[in-house]
Amino acid sequence: MTWAAILTLAGLQALIAISPGPAAVVTIKTAASQGVKAGLALSFGLASAILIWASAALAGLSIVFEVAPYLQTSLRIAGGLFLIWIGWKMWRHARTPMPDPGAAPTIGVAQLIRLGLLTNLANPKALAYFAAVFVGIMPADPTFAIALTILTVIFVIEFAWYAALSMAFSRPSPRRAYQRGKTFIDRAFGGIVALLGARIAYN
Q1: Which of 5, 8, 51, 2 is nearest to 152 (CA)?
Q2: Residue environment code for 73-100, b if the CB has 16+ CB neighbours within 10 A, otherwise e
Q3: pLDDT computed for residue 167 by the predictor
Q4: What average pLDDT does range 2-24 have in this prediction?
Q5: In this predicted structure, what is the pLDDT of residue 148?
Q6: How far apart are the C-alpha atoms of 120 and 130, rounded to whole Å?
Q7: Other CB atoms within 10 A of residue 196 CB
Q8: pLDDT (tens digit per residue) in 186-201
Q9: How far apart are CA 85 and CA 53, in angstroms?
């Protein structure tokens, strides 16, 4: 696999990362309500989940789904239900006041990482991409060095994107705008995530 091919893969991964989805919604809400440190912790979890999907694809994820297609269906339904749960939590806590800008995150770092991890593990967009498109781009038998390079590139791209979102939406102006419309924004975000989850689980 040439460096040109790796750069092509990196460009495709960047497009997948920046496409709208539940991960972006959760990142924006977390950064705006709890600050950049909370957003970065969440970003690490989101990128780690994508790293897990990529590693599974390299290990033969598509073959497993061919042998046991019900497993893919089960993962899709479980992911959809988890997104519905996240949406419900956003809706339920829409009226909860925001913490002060200098206060510690109301959710611990470990919990934020876990939330990011579960959010992208539940993301069927990632499942579909790595089970189908990604394995089609990869060489049939990559060396350890190539596999490690690709996994590193994927992690860096994913973390950089969500970290950029976190830094942008934790700034004073977006934070004040979010604070003014928190109840409406949280319920809108929660509704969007829950509807995405319902659609995923049903389809």
Answers
A1: 51
A2: eebbbebbebbbebbeebbeebeeeeee
A3: 93
A4: 78
A5: 87
A6: 12
A7: 22
A8: 788 788 878 877 876 7
A9: 22
Q: Is 201 left (phi over 0), alpha (psi -120 to 50) or beta?
A: alpha
3-state secondary structure the chain: CCHHHHHHHHHHHHHHHHCCCHHHHHHHHHHHHHCHHHHHHHHHHHHHHHHHHHHHHHCCHHHHHHHCHHHHHHHHHHHHHHHHHHHHHHHHCCCCCCCCCCCCCCCCHHHHHHHHHHHHHCCHHHHHHHHHHHHHHCCCCCCHHHHHHHHHHHHHHHHHHHHHHHHHHCCHHHHHHHHHCHHHHHHHHHHHHHHHHHHHHHC
Is the pTM value of this prediction over 0.70? yes
Structure confidence at residue 65 as a pLDDT band (50, 70, 90): low
